[in-house]
Target: Sugar ABC transporter permease
Amino acid sequence: MAAQQIQAEAPEKVAPRTGNSRGKIAYWAAFALLVLLALIWLIPLAWAIDTALKPESETTTVPVSWFASHFTLDAFITTLATSNLPRWTFNSALTSIAVSVLTVILASLAAFGISRVRFQGRNLVFWIILAGIMVPGQILIVPLFTQMQAFNMVDTYWGIILPQIASPVAVFIFKQYFDGIPHELEEAAILDGASRLRVYWRIWMPLARPAIAAVAIFTFVTSWNNFIWPFIVITGNNMMTLPVGLATVQTSFGIRYAQIMATAVIGSIPVLIVFLFFQKQIVEGIAGTGLKG
Model:
């Protein structure tokens, strides 16, 4: 009887070990895949830094080599000395921050109105805003430029900023987040005499910090990397943003790859800093808005 009892209990002890080993295999397989994807993403960045640190004469050698005879900062020094890079960086920072702040305010107000204010045609307004996601931005370039020209905003900061602050995606994210906030908070505040604007600013916005962070960061990165619209609306060198300035540097330098890569590396540093400092907020914002949907 004792032997039969041991044989009956044996499979029950082996099964958890098999499941545990399978879980470990799946974990390490996923980990290896993520490491591989990270390396694939980092290779272009490493190549750009490597090329920027090479002497110009070694950037066009065949076969191509990762390692130069010696590394130098000549490309960075030449780029800073011959281009208007500090001014372009300032223009990009100013316009990107302004676009991010105005987008958060405008989109959150629109989302609050659609989510919390009961009015006729509310769903229709929301669907019209969502339809804007399906409209390619390129087809709006001509009417936007005509409008900026009529307002005398060509080659101005406002000409760069205003057309970028209307974001249907941001409205959608804020509405999804606001829909998940309990109505009792709003009702209690209104009973205490608070206006809807006060409810929006004192209750809804503090609760929507993850959504604010996600929208602000993604808007900042998108505006920072935007090339087409600033390229069209800007006419002077001093008003250029960094992506537009990079294009002029590439044209003037020709095939001087070290200087081109040095300019690109310098231009990518602010975006990398933003991501490194706010990656937690990005993840929380995406997760929070996703769960509320």
